[in-house]
Amino acid sequence: MASSDETSLVWLRDDLRLDDNPALAEAAGLGLPMTVLYILDEESEGIRPLGGAARWWLHHSLAALAADLESKGSRLVLRRGKSDAIVRKLAGQTKAGHIFWNRRYSQPERTIDAGLKDWAGENGIHASSFQANLLFEPWTIRTGAGGPYKVYSPFWRACMASADIRDPLDAPAALPEPAASGPGVPTSDTLASWKLLPTSPDWSTGLAETWEPGEKGAADRLADFLDGPVEDYGTGRNIPGTEGTSRLSPHLRFGEVSPFRVWREIRRRHPGKIPADVGIFRSELGWREFNWHLLYHNPDLATRNFRPAFDNFQWGRVSRSELAAWQQGKTGYPLVDAGMRQLWQTGWMHNRVRMAAASFLVKNLLTDWRIGEEWFWDTLVDADAANNPANWQWVAGSGADASPYYRIFNPVTQSKKFDADGSYLRAFIPELQGLEGKQIHEPWTAGADGYPAPLVDLAESRERALDAYQKLKDE
DNA sequence: AGTAGATTTGT
DNA sequence: CAAATCTAC
């Protein structure tokens, strides 16, 4: 029985937006005084703490979200600690009769959410969860035999053949007043007290110049991309020196834009047949869906080879200095180095270059993919629990529908092919500014002051990798 | 979503 | 003889 001072509680997590936010929309529709909560949880069992770049992003995204909520009459409550304890306590203090959230798909998070749903049921509180962050929930897409998919193409075909993708919801025009907790509204941590931003040194200058975290930044990025680059996506996405990709990944990671909104905006611009280039972009959203499908059905994707045969793989002993050279962009191979420096400076790396840089670490340096996965987790603004490990396993060949073992990128061939004019290399490697024409792809033939000599011989290290992978095949 | 080496094609 | 195409790993 609802009492007159009953309230609602919306718990936001990886959905830092007002647009197409089913949990928020449902709560707003109730009209009860409403608490909007975000929890920084680094304590619950199994939770993987955010990397440094993601912490920077989260700070700015929450600041933007708080301002957006306030402009509509609401307020963001920030709390830090164990999620289940905080939600239970706050629900009690605010006399919440209804709790709303949008679903998430990692094992530790699902365990917390399921526990809270049980607790709510036992305490007469209505807890409702919604589909908001994936177009297809991982358990709904099944093979003919009833199991999860292990190959991308049939997975995406099955998605496309399944039920229609729902329309996105508009952001609520206004939001209910904040719920009271005893004498006033619930206290909130200050964002600054979470110390998410780097100090001494502040390495975030390049990130701030590159990104606008928050819902407005996400919407602008989506519009800019769909109004131009997407029409030439098939080729444009491979040229790292241009703005040929959407750069939506961190916005999707933090839920500042809904995949349902992206889908609808594409459809709105192409009501008839979807052009091939636009279809390729949509299929990249499909890879995001596939990777979450994989994680849902394989919760230890970040630590365990998807293909158990790889448990016997003989990774090389990578020296501290070799790893540091890769991390710092000092391998002597311009495309790899430009990519690793772009990552360090901006928190992001072009996908074509990610493949080349990851291939170099895993195959030419024969490094366990988990080492690379951890570095990317710490330095990427867009790393999430599914896509980062799934993509590393794809490169290593240990994953589902993975790259074949003999696919070893040649960073010189790749940069000649995809950065022919060297504009990407020049943008991130000052030591190579002076090199003329094609010399920039092979600086050792010209000599460039301050730029390192190649860390390993490409042909030799390639043969070593092929031998190691061959051994695995022979077992 | 690859590379390298061999073979064929085209100017 | 360079570029496009084919093929095995």
β-strand number:
5
Number of helices: 19
- List segments where confidence is low: pLDDT < 50 over at least 5 consecutive residues: none
What strand order characterises the main sheet?
Answer: 3-2-1-4-5
How big a fraction of the residues is strand?
5-15%
**Mind telling me the C-alpha Rg?**
24 Å
Give the CATH topology of the largest domain: DNA Cyclobutane Dipyrimidine Photolyase, subunit A, domain 3
* Largest beta-sheet characterization: 5 strands, parallel
Order of helices and strands: EHEHEHEHEHHHHHHHHHHHHHHH
Average pLDDT level: 96
* CATH class bucket of the largest domain: Mainly Alpha
Structural class: alpha/beta
The proportion of residues forming helix, as a percent range, comes to 40-55%
Q: Number of domains in the coordinates?
A: 3
CATH hierarchy: architecture of the largest domain = Orthogonal Bundle
Pfam family, one: FAD_binding_7
Family: Belongs to the DNA photolyase family.
Cofactor: FAD; (6R)-5,10-methylene-5,6,7,8-tetrahydrofolate
Keywords: Chromophore, FAD, Flavoprotein, Lyase
Question: Could you characterize what this model shows?
Answer:
The record marks 315, 369, 392 as: Electron transfer via tryptophanyl radical. Belongs to the DNA photolyase family. The protein is an alpha/beta fold and 475 residues long. It folds into three domains: 7-133, HUPs (Rossmann fold), CATH 3.40.50; 134-168 and 214-297, Alpha Horseshoe (Serine Threonine Protein Phosphatase 5, Tetratricopeptide repeat), CATH 1.25.40; 308-474, DNA Cyclobutane Dipyrimidine Photolyase, subunit A, domain 3, CATH 1.10.579.10. It is built from 19 helices and five strands. Strands 3-2-1-4-5 form a five-stranded parallel sheet, with helices on both faces. Strand 2, helix 2 (52-71) and strand 3 form a beta-alpha-beta unit.
